[in-house]
Amino acid sequence: MRSPMHKKRGNTLISRRILTSLTPRKNEGVCRGVTRDTNTTAPHQTEPKTGGVFVFPPKGLYPRERNHYPGIPSHSHRAPTLLTLNSVEIEETFAEAFPMTAARVLVTADTLAWARVAGQSATGYAASVIGCDAEAGIERELSAAETPDGRPGVALLFFGFSRDALQKAVTNRVANCVLTCATTACFNGLDGEPGKSMKVGGALRYFGDGWQISKLLEGKRYWRMPTMDGEFLCEETFGTVKGVGGGNFLILGETQSQALAAAEAAVNAIRAVPGVILPFPGGIVRSGSKVGSKYKGLKASTNDEYCPTLRGAVASKLPEGVHAVYEIVIDGLDLASVETATRVGIEAACQPGVKQITAGNYGGKLGPHHIHLHKLFPKPS
Prior knowledge:
Elements: E1 34-37, E2 82-85, E3 88-90, E4 94-108, H1 112-122, E5 135-142, E6 153-160, H2 163-178, E7 185-188, E8 198-199, H3 201-204, E9 213-217, E10 220-227, E11 230-235, E12 237-238, E13 241-253, H4 256-270, E14 276-277, E15 289-291, E16 300-302, E17 324-332, H5 335-349, E18 354-358, E19 369-372
Parallel strand pairs: 3-18, 7-11
Antiparallel strand pairs: 1-2, 2-3, 4-6, 4-7, 4-13, 4-19, 5-6, 8-12, 9-10, 10-11, 13-17, 13-18, 14-17, 15-16
């Protein structure tokens, strides 16, 4: 799990040919199949210790660290609002996200196939900053009309906890995965925040061993480095913005195949949202984690409360009949983009065999951005 609340800044590409379709759109309209019941009274009983029927407790029944309805006094007897979408229950909770530094890298090539190869290589091994130098993914493919050099390409998004760490990760990845890839060129994809740029081409130019030359066009400097198939062109500096990491939701399914089908549908829907990526393999997480471990020095360990095989051995959060859980983790250039991606992903995931949609948080202690699931869906008029 990971978070945004910053207003969108600098989310533009470097050429007028870049379409404005990369700009997130505001949430509009009422979702089909959404129903609300504000009069349902939940039974006052504690959560079963060994599985059994899942019961919605009144708000505040659990301590804050259990992440059930935080902020409601323990003496409150007000039942939670129930929300269903296509007969799938959406739990009244929130995803907890946090600020990350973000950059957009445009990679072009003679063909879209070679641009994809470079993009896939450059964003590999970038699922989580817990164990990787960055979180990264392909945002979308670009037509020749959308790129600075008039060739097909891909837009990549990279996220890190600091600008220095992100610069090191992006520079290394461009050097080893883009520079080395046939026919490619590399461009900045964000105007970025003033004074918050990072050098990429400016660091890679030394590969030219003294034969590199620079060009200054419309106030931007580009470096040309000779290669065995011609030359590699890379923009000197890349813009950065304060993005959001760790948006998430969990899909609780009756069977593994049903949960996976719902997760795949969510991924396909989210990939149409501009300004976001799903950094994990295929956009889906099977090994959701919690902070810490019984083993010294381990930063994260399995999220045992959602492991079906541990039902009965731990304080399980799984409703009866759930035998598989998949998590969708979302990083975005701004909070609005992550919220939109969460909403469309949940809508797509509410399929037969899915019992519940929920989200992961740490009681508000991890990140300042709280994405409340119920608030993503407007109330029917």
